[in-house]
Specification:
Number of domains: 1
Number of strands: 0
Strand content: under 5%
Radius of gyration: 45 Å
Number of helices: 3
Helix content: over 70%
Structural class: mainly alpha
Shape: flat
Largest sheet: none
């Protein structure tokens, strides 16, 4: 068998467009008209590029804005879900405390000789007393810690003043009163 070569066909064919000329048009080359056509073609090309750039920029900004809106929606949704979860947990804690106190009040009522009102009164009083003590202790701790931080802040500043100027504001105010 002999080698068969594939036929060579042209990949694409091009035809030269023929411009019809009317009888009143001249077939002479007009450099002025050609230059104007080039400028018009360039202006159209630049205008098209500017339009394309505007559209792409608008598309980009729109996509970014939609991404921001989606992020905000997700944050709001997750915040609502977290809030709902906290409400459910708080409801369970409150229910547990109510059941605990109710049981404690019933037990105290039995201890007080079948007087449930006295058990409820003592249980409520104990609860309110514990809340008051916890609040007072918490406030005292908070105020003491706040005062300590403020004192440390100003002591640090006086140390910086002594290192930088050789004296601090307390020494300077003592000199002014003499």
């Amino acid at each position: 068998m002999g080698d068969v070569l594939p036929s060579r066909r042209p990949i694409a064919t091009f035809e030269v467009a023929k411009m019809p000329y009317s009888s009143d048009q001249s077939r002479d080359f007009d450099p002025q008209a050609t230059a104007e056509d080039d400028r018009d073609g360039q202006a159209d090309g630049v205008g098209r590029l500017v339009g394309e750039l505007k559209e792409f920029a608008s598309y980009f900004i729109s996509a970014k804005w939609d991404g921001i809106k989606l992020s905000i929606r997700q944050v709001v949704l997750y915040s609502i879900l977290i809030l709902l979860g906290l409400i459910i947990v708080a409801a369970f804690v409150v229910m547990g405390v109510v059941l605990l106190l109710d049981g404690m009040a019933d037990g105290l009522g039995v201890l007080f000789g079948g007087r449930p009102w006295l058990g409820n009164l003592v249980a409520g009083g104990v609860l309110l007393g514990l809340l008051a003590c916890g609040t007072i202790l918490g406030m005292k701790r908070f105020m003491a810690k706040s005062k300590q931080k403020t004192v440390e802040k100003y002591e640090f500043r006086k140390d910086q003043q002594r290192a930088r100027f050789g004296r601090d504001v307390r020494h300077r105010s003592g000199e002014a009163t003499r």
